[in-house]
Structures are given as C-alpha cells and as structure tokens.
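User: Design a sequence. Structure:
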C-alpha cells in the first residue's frame, strides 16, 4: 500500500495515497462560527466545498502550528470530501501491511501514524456543532 505522509504538530501521519485528490497552497480558509477549534473552516476549490480540519487536534494529540498559508491536503472518497492542514509534506511511503489504523516506522526512524478517511469522518460525526451544542452547554452550566 502506498501512503501519503505528512507532518502536523510534530506528528507524522500517513493516509492511503489514492484518497489524496490534491495538495493546495495559497488558498483562503473561510472560518465557520460555532465549530470546534480543530474545525478551521471551509475552502472552495474548483467548484467543490471542503471542510478544513486540524487532524492532530481532532485526534487529540496536539494542534497544527502552521504559519501563513499552509499546505492543505484535499481528500475525496465515496461522496465525501475533507481538507487536512499540514505543516510539511514528507512524500510517499510504500508499506506491505496496511490493514486498519496503527503505527508504522519509516527508514528515517520517524513514527508514522496511519489514519483512514473513514476514521476521521466518524470522529467528526460524533462532534457537537452549532447552536444545539451551545444550548446544551448552557443547560448543563458549561460556558
């Protein structure tokens, strides 16, 4: 299996290369109100709308530290689309066993965490967004 490897918040992540639609730079992210901190906003690219996600923030292992215009990895699969923020693109890596999620190692001794678009999507679906989250927080005394 061929992995697309990138670095975000000092963590190396790998995603199957065939899910990567494009890598773009110099594109404006439009913020969306009432979303979690790792939902950075939306981008419009070639007639399609992508949600921009700080993947390490979503996975709970840090926060991307991009400056200026970051490289954004556009993913497409089935009828779904996402954009992930990266601090650095490392390249492609071939691995023999890529069943599921987990950790593998590259020849440079960097630990690469394997993630799948479906895992990212399932985590996003479990998140509270918008006014319903705010009203629940107010009812429970949070905020």
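Assistant: Done.
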């Amino acid at each position: 299996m061929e992995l697309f490897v990138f670095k975000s918040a000092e963590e190396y992540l790998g995603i199957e290369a065939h899910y990567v639609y494009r890598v773009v730079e110099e594109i404006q992210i439009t913020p969306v109100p009432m979303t979690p901190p790792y939902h950075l906003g939306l981008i419009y690219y070639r007639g399609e709308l992508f949600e921009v996600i700080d993947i390490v923030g979503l996975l709970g292992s840090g926060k991307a530290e991009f400056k200026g215009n970051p490289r954004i990895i556009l993913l497409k699969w089935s009828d779904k689309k996402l954009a992930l923020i990266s601090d650095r693109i490392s390249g492609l890596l071939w691995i023999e066993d890529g069943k599921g999620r987990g950790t593998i190692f590259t020849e440079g001794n960097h630990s690469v965490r394997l993630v799948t678009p479906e895992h990212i999507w399932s985590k996003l679906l479990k998140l509270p967004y918008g006014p319903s989250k705010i009203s629940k927080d107010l009812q429970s005394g949070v905020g």
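Helices lie at 55-58, 117-125, 130-140. The CA atoms of residues 47 and 81 lie 12 Å apart.
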